[in-house]
Amino acid sequence: MTDGDLLAAQERFAAQIPGFVMPVAYGVARADASVLTFGHVNAPGAVRPLPAVVLASVCGYVATTGVYRLDHAQFAKVVERLAPAEAATHMPHPNLWSWRDLLTVAGADSTFLGFFVAAVDDPPVDQYDAQFRHLLAP
User: Fold this and answer.
1) Are 32 and 74 in contact (CB under 8 A)?
2) CA contacts within 13 A on the Cβ side of 12
3) Between the CA of residue 15 and those of 79, 98, 113, what are the distances in Å?
4) How far apart are CA 38 and CA 2, in angstroms?
5) Three-state DSSP string of the chain
6) Least CB-packed of 23, 39, 100, 134 within 10 Å?
7) CA nearest 39: which of 130, 115, 122?
8) Per-residue pLDDT for 138 more than 90?
């Protein structure tokens, strides 16, 4: 798989989300009770576009900062949709790898949270988003 293939996949997913705007930061956490376990954090300046749009295609992000709750089946769909990108062996896939790990050790009561930051100066939307934003701080 080439960089061109990855870009084409990104564009295909984005075309299915009318008004999609690439976030400046995003990430995923597994929520077990009130404890969050974060996967790879995509901070401003280090956003990987394909995983962002794949996650958005399942959780509903379009262009507004927010926290999106996903159940086990929805998050498994995210991982499944992103998995073909792993064929691009010339680059690492930290989102896919960390998301797969989050899914693998999820318990029956685990849920997943997708975090999207549309603009760096947007305030956190809740206490979970505040925890995510702390991880973005330099």
Assistant:
1) no
2) 8
3) 19, 26, 23
4) 29
5) CCHHHHHHHHHHHHHCCCCCCCCCEEEEEEEECCEEEEEEEECCCCCCHHHHHHHHHHHCCCCCCEEEEECHHHHHHHHHHHHHHHHCCCCCCHHHHHHHHHHHCCCCCCEEEEEEECCCCCCCCCHHHHHHHHHHCC
6) 134
7) 115
8) no
pLDDT band at 20 (very low <50, low <70, confident <90, very high): very high
Distance CA 32, CA 74 (A): 16
C-alpha span between 64 and 129 (Å, rounded): 13
Encoded tokens for 121: 């100066």
Q: Is 58 in contact with 81 (CB distance < 8 Å)?
A: yes
Tokens standing for 132? 């995510």
Instruction: Give the confidence band of 117 by pLDDT, cuts at 50, 70, 90.
Output: very high
Going by pLDDT thresholds of 50, 70 and 90, the confidence category of residue 34 is confident
